[in-house]
Specification:
The protein has two domains: 146 residues, NAD(P)-binding Rossmann-like Domain (Rossmann fold); 197 residues, Orthogonal Bundle (Rna Polymerase Sigma Factor, Chain: A). The protein contains 15 helices and eleven strands. Strand 5, helix 5 and strand 6 form a beta-alpha-beta unit. It is globular.
């Protein structure tokens, strides 16, 4: 690269954010961190701002912002934004080349659309963004002719496998899934899984919510919906296979019968580095796969009795344009209730299914109606009693 690429990182204190910072620190001449955000972790954000000399900072939680202002923990030379509009203002007033979306949830939609409007490339690690507003995001990407680069390891793998190939010759993509924390738990014992157990992923180090989603495989359901928008696919073209080792991150199958795969160790730094340098590459000091050592790779079709959230994702695709939004919002509320020990592990798919079958949707499709459906779904899912479903 001729000059340092300017980066805004939303979610700097999370797991994806930490991996992104590791890469930026490793290549100081290639990247300049010009904006960062967190929700509540003001002390951690202040440390990042000091380490990387970041000029623009956002705290989206109003109370955290007020506490930071009162404590004067950020440099007086930094611009600090706070509250509900903080992310939007950060992007509106900061010049950058690429936005890394490393925050979870639907509140990433508005700032991401603003970044696209300003001509930033988007490195996306937020499944909910395309699940909720895929049509709006992809339309904006096309209009502004910016890049949408997937950070999720599965979608990044597909992106790499498709590179230079004619997608009209694509037969299907196959997303790999580790099976999560409960893949070996007998099905009749799943109802007794605790939040602590569901957070113990065998391969990946991730946030609590996405790790629980991995245990239910709702995360793979979200990835199915996300893949539909990222790669303009029909539901029948998107498949899933269980792969416990998490070495192969996805397959692409062509109409001539050939199959391409992307392999790398189970670390998000490989996908993040690919996106930050794209279309260039740099040597990664982390060890890759060692073919001088023996290892095996295993694949198997997922058991839908164990993972009903997977099948519900295909139902959500049939209910577009609102199915994805309903699936995502119902799952978020169900996971929150599970973590709070209000419901059982096996109640999560019950809440998603009942919500998909009962939320009334309008005939029109606007951003406002989409956000209303999102809120209506959350209210509905919050009130459901799984014992009556």
């Amino acid at each position: 690269m001729d000059k340092a690429k300017r980066i805004i990182l939303l979610g700097a204190t999370g797991s994806i954010g930490s991996n992104t910072l590791e890469i930026i620190q490793r290549f100081p001449e290639d990247f300049q961190l010009v904006g960062i955000s967190a929700h509540k972790k003001c002390q951690a954000l202040a440390q990042i701002a000091e380490t990387f000399q970041v000029p623009s900072i956002a705290l989206s939680d109003e109370s955290a912002y007020q506490s930071a202002v009162e404590a004067k923990i950020f440099s007086k030379d930094s611009k600090l934004y706070g509250g509900d509009q903080a992310l939007h203002q950060l992007i509106e007033e900061t010049q950058a080349d690429i936005l890394v979306v490393a925050i979870v949830g639907t509140h990433a939609l508005s700032p991401t659309l603003k970044a696209i409007e300003k001509g930033f490339d988007i490195a996306l690690a937020n499944k909910e963004l395309l699940v909720l507003g895929g049509s709006f995001v992809t339309q904006a990407i096309q209009e502004k002719q910016v890049r949408l680069l997937p950070i999720d390891s599965e979608h990044n793998a597909i992106f790499q496998c498709l590179h230079g190939n004619n997608t009209k010759d694509l037969k299907s993509i196959i997303l790999t899934a580790s099976g999560g924390a409960c893949r070996d738990t007998p099905i009749d014992q799943l109802q007794d899984i605790t939040p602590h157990q569901a957070k113990q992923h065998p391969n990946w180090s991730m946030g609590a919510k996405i790790t629980i989603d991995s245990a239910t495989m709702a995360n793979k359901g979200l990835e199915i919906i996300e893949a539909r928008w990222l790669f303009d696919l029909e539901p029948h073209q998107i498949k899933v296979t269980l792969h416990p080792e998490s070495i192969v991150h996805s397959f692409v199958q062509w109409i001539d019968g050939s199959v391409l795969a992307q392999l790398s160790p189970p670390s998000m730094t490989f996908a993040i580095q690919h996106c930050l340098f794209y279309p260039d590459k740099r040597a990664n000091p982390k060890p890759s796969i060692d073919f001088d050592e023996s290892f095996s790779l295993n694949f198997a079709p997922p058991d839908l009795k164990r993972y009903p959230c997977l099948e519900l994702a295909y139902q959500a695709l049939k209910q577009e344009p609102y199915g994805g939004a309903i699936y995502n919002a119902a799952n978020e509320i169900a996971v929150q209730r599970f973590v709070a020990e209000e419901i059982r592990f096996t109640d999560i798919p019950k809440i998603i299914e009942h919500t998909l079958n009962n939320i009334q949707t309008p005939n029109t499709h606007t951003l406002a109606s989409l956000l209303k459906i999102d809120q209506d779904t959350r209210d509905f899912a919050q009130q459901l009693d799984p014992k009556k479903l």
